[in-house]
Write a structure and sequence with these properties.
Largest sheet: 7 strands, antiparallel
CATH superfamily of the largest domain: Collagenase ColT, N-terminal domain
Number of domains: 2
Radius of gyration: 27 Å
Low-confidence stretches: 1-23, 370-407
Structural class: alpha+beta
Number of strands: 12
CATH topology of the largest domain: Glutaredoxin
Bound molecules: zinc ion
Number of helices: 13
Strand content: 15-25%
Distance between the termini: 56 Å
Shape: elongated
Oligomer: single chain
CATH architecture of the largest domain: 3-Layer(aba) Sandwich
Amino acid sequence: MIKKATILALVIYLFLSILSPISIQAQSGLTILDSSAHAEFPSRLSFNLAAQSDVNITDIRLCYTVDRISHTQITSEVYIEFVPAATVNVSWTWDMRKTGGLPPGSGVDYWWVLEDASGDKIKTAPSRIQFNDNRYSWRNLTEGKVTIYWYKDNDSFAREIMLSAQQALTRLAEGTGAELEKPVKLYIYANTQDLRGSMIYPQEWTGGVAFTRYGIIAIGIASDNLSWGKRAVAHELTHLVIHQMTLNPYNDLPTWLNEGLAMHTEGMLELEFTAYLNKAIAENNLISVRSLSSPFSAYAEQSYLSYAQSYTLIDFLISKYGRAKMLELLLTFKQGSSYDGALEEVYGFDMDTLDNLWQDYVTTSVQPTEEKGMLPALIGKSPTPSTSLLLAKTPHPLHFGVCLPIP
Ligand SMILES: [Zn+2]
C-alpha cells in the first residue's frame, strides 16, 4: 500500500515536471506576473515586482549582488514591506545618495524570493541591470581586454586613447610581467563637469575615478587636454592590473609599489616631480621607504615627492634586479605576504635595507634637469576658473574617489 502510494506520488511528480519543466510557478499558484528594474543614473536603481497566488503572499525579499572583483560574493537581501494579499505590486528603490554610488557601466544581478500563506516559496532566476550613464550616447571601441566608451569627439580621439592604453599595458608587461586578467572599461567624459555629473557627491578637484574593484575607470578628458588624459589613463589602468593580479584577503600592497608602478607605466617622470625629488635630495629630506608604504600625505609638496620617490624605487628595482623579480614580488604579495616578508623572500632584504640601497642609487644617478618655474601650483591655491589646469597638474586627482562606500 505504502509502495503504491509512493509510486503514484512519483508519477504525479514526474507528470507535473514534464508539464512545466522550467516554470517557476509553485503548486499553490504562486506566480510572478512581472519583474523589472529601472536605472536613474547616478542616484537610483528601482526594482518592481507583481505577483499573485491563490492565497495571501506573505513574504517578499529582493536579493542583489553587485558585479565586482571580490574574495567572496556578497549578496544583499531586502525585506519588502507590504500588506499581505493574493495579488501584490511592490517596489524598492536603492537610493545611492544614502549609500554611495556605483560607477557607470557597473552591473547588478537581482532576484526575488517570495512565500505565500500555504508555505509555498519561489525564487526567480537572476536578472542583470546595467547601471549606465544614459545622459550621453556612448560609442565604444574594444581592443583586447580594454573597452573605451566616449561620446564627444571623433573616432580618432578614442583611437589615440586606446593606442596609449595598449602601449601602457605593453610597457607594464615588459617591465613587470603584470597583465590584465579581466576586461576593463574606460568611460571618457568630455570634460570634468560631465564627469562630476556621474558622481553622487563629486569633489571639485575630481578629474577621474578608478573603480579598481569594478574594473572601471571614469575620467574627464577634453580634446585639448589629451596628453594629460593619456598619462592618467596609463596610470589608472596600471592600478586596475595590479589590483587584479595581487588581490588577496590578507594584505594590500605598500603604497610606493602600487603608485610607483603606475607612475612608471606613465613613462618618463615629469619635470615637476623631478624638481621636488632633486630638492629633497639636495636638502637631505627624502621620505623613508617605510613611510612611503602607508598612504601618501595630502600636502602637495609631500605628495609630489612621494610619487617621485615611488617612481625611482620601481626604476631602481627593475633596472638593478630585473623584470622577473618584480613579477615575483607581485605574486608574493598576492599570497598575502607582509611588506618586509615579501622583500626578504624575493630580494633578500627588508624595507630599511631597500631604503639604504635606493638612496645610494637615487642620489648618485642623474635626474633630468630642473627647469626654473616648472614647480606646479599647489593644490587648492588657485581660483576655480583654473580647475582644469589644476587637475592637469595635480599628481593625483584620480585617487580621491577610489573607495566608494559599498552598501
Ligand atoms: Zn595612483
